[in-house]
Design goal:
heterodimer; A: 505 residues; mainly alpha; B: mainly alpha; Non-ribosomal Peptide Synthetase Peptidyl Carrier Protein, Chain A
């Protein structure tokens, strides 16, 4: 059930109605039934995998809370994590691995069969969320959930299971099981957030994708400047698609009285690549930091390595080598998680290298700025940093969008060595599948997002600003947004809202 | 103890007045790289075993919080 389909709206209205009609103590059961119904629509057989993770995590959680023996707990944690991540890896990478193995086995006349495996909806997101729960229990952060049905709801909560945000048990579970009275403010905020998400998705992302696919699926017949233009549109597309989807998810949850964590904090205002990744897919970044980066960096081998490197390279470099190595592993893991493809590994290495490099040169940069009398906190330097960060992100996007690493490198080569600026003209642009009106909508939509983002960066709460306006204005804004969505979202012939990109992960 | 902790923090970022800050983590004054360096120094200086389970914002948001964590771990032995 796509978040942009009419069936979803019907489903949401019925769920809201039942949810606010039943007594508060049964509301969580409504959510559980709704979540499993939602999941069943995606594929009833896939519920098996969801249940497998739910059941193994539930029982392991109970044992981790009860057992005192640390070694036993460690082995249990390792086994259950291995099982669940193994399942994720198997479903995600089986065919890729088989194709590789068959290449090796081919001379001997062997061939292993490949299967068409349908990836269970949101498997990455619920696997990460469940793993976080177990590691927290192992660390003694809280007690295990004893009610299996309540735990099943934590794993399967329907708006967020599709593409996150990856929640923490102690923040989400109490909200899911608490009674919620109908609150018109929450309902209103939820609708506003959902509309904002639909605006990003339908007006911008679903238009940008046309240019992206037209050019990049056939990049060899386009000049460097058109490729760069399409990659820029891909930046717009992926941000509006993913953050728009998250807004819809968070808005849906808010209507139910449940606050899900933020997943994006205006990443295009980041002043460094590290800052960008702190603002982009925040819940995944936090997960990686707490459950992979910290344990790795504090592990004995890294600690010993740190002592050695500090002796060998006094100063900043010696200190950051082991931490950089850990961050490399994190980016590598995030890369692999995106897909079994060399381009994602290259993307991980690209980010890891640049972030480490930025840390090493930081003191030199500070000295340089002092010498040339530029205030590092001043607007001039901030703008330079924002532009250069966006440029680095833009280059990184070549890797994630290209069909392969080879294609990404060729696209980059064309951009840098065969740019041909004259190829960008109105005739060429109108040949990429979008009309003048479409381009105008993407431009206006992006400027609105940029304006709202700028106001939020300056500390303005858009919600509070809207609250201060009279009800007629608020109502009119909702209506205008709806009108824009309906007219400009559906007017295009053969328009079908595309699937969300992160749904496939 | 406070002086030693302040000296370690000052080495991380000399531009911050660590005595006044109470949101070192929540306000992103210390990033995850800083935290790892800080923990390494604290472990060495105070002979502690700060692990990933202790890396919560509430344990590192201020100098007082850091000192409380050190005292707690020292008491646990």
């Amino acid at each position: 059930m796509s978040l942009t389909s009419p069936v979803f709206f019907l489903f949401l209205i019925i769920t809201l109605f039942v949810y606010f009609t039943v007594p508060g103590r049964y509301q969580w059961l409504v959510l559980l039934v709704a979540s499993y119904l939602f999941y069943a629509v995606a594929g009833i057989k896939l519920i098996f995998f969801l249940l497998l993770t739910t059941v193994t995590t539930y029982f392991a959680g109970l044992l981790l809370s009860r057992w005192k023996n640390k070694t036993r707990k460690k082995w249990l944690l390792a086994a259950v994590l291995l099982f669940n991540f193994g399942l994720l890896a198997f479903l995600k990478y089986y065919n890729f691995a088989i194709a590789g193995l068959n290449l090796i086995l081919a001379p001997a006349g062997f061939a292993l069969p490949s299967f068409s495996l349908l990836l269970p909806l949101g498997i990455s997101f619920y696997t990460f969320q469940s793993a976080g729960y177990l590691i927290d229990l192992y660390r003694g952060k809280y007690q295990a959930e004893t009610n299996p049905a309540k735990f099943a709801l934590f794993v399967s909560f329907f708006p967020q299971i599709i593409q996150g945000p990856i929640s923490r048990f102690d923040q989400l579970a109490p909200q899911l099981t608490a009674p919620h009275a109908l609150d018109f403010d929450q309902l209103k905020y939820g609708i506003q957030l959902m509309l904002w998400g639909y605006f990003k998705k339908i007006i911008i992302a679903d238009r940008a994708v046309v240019v992206v696919n037209t050019v990049l699926d056939n990049f060899t017949s386009h000049s460097g400047s058109i490729i760069a233009f399409a990659v820029f549109f891909y930046c717009l597309q992926i941000y509006c698609d993913f953050s728009g989807g998250i807004d819809i998810v968070r808005g849906t949850a808010q209507m139910l009285g449940i606050n899900l964590r933020e997943n994006f904090r205006r990443p295009y205002f980041a002043t460094s690549l590290a800052d960008f990744w702190r603002r982009w897919h925040i819940s995944l970044g936090d997960w990686m930091r707490d459950y992979l980066f910290f344990p790795l960096s504090l592990a004995k081998p890294f600690y010993k390595l740190g002592k050695r490197t500090r002796k060998l390279f006094p100063g900043k470099l010696g200190k950051i080598i082991p931490t950089s190595l850990a961050s490399f592993i994190v980016f590598f893991t995030i890369g692999i998680w995106h897909g079994a493809n060399l381009k994602y590994i290259a993307f991980g290495i690209y980010n890891g290298l640049l972030i480490s490099f930025a840390i090493v040169i930081e003191p030199y940069m500070k000295n340089f700025l002092q010498k040339v009398q530029i205030n590092p906190q001043g607007p001039f330097w901030q703008i330079i940093q924002i532009i250069s960060t966006n440029f680095l992100v833009f280059i990184g996007r070549y890797f994630t969008r290209a069909a392969s690493l080879g294609a990404a490198l060729q696209m980059l080569k064309k951009t840098f060595f065969f740019f041909q600026a004259s190829a960008i003209n109105s005739g060429a642009l109108l040949d990429l599948g979008l009309t003048k009106l479409d381009y105008l909508l993407v431009l206006c939509g992006s400027l609105i997002i940029l304006g709202v983002g700028f106001a939020q960066e300056k500390g303005t709460s858009i919600r509070k600003t809207l609250e201060q306006k009279n009800w007629a204005f608020q109502w009119a804004l909702v209506m205008v947004t709806l009108f824009v969505l309906v007219v400009f979202g559906i007017y295009r012939q053969g328009f079908i809202a595309s699937e969300f990109i992160y749904q496939q992960f | 103890m406070e002086e030693k902790v302040l000296a370690i923090l000052a080495a991380l970022n000399p531009d911050v007045d660590f005595t006044a800050e109470t949101n070192l983590i929540d306000d992103d004054i210390l990033d995850s790289f800083d935290i790892i360096t800080l923990v390494g120094e604290l472990n060495d200086t105070f002979k502690l075993d700060i692990g990933p389970q202790h890396l919560l914002p509430e344990n590192f948001n201020s100098v007082t919080a850091i000192i409380n964590l050190i005292k707690k771990l020292q008491a646990e032995g």
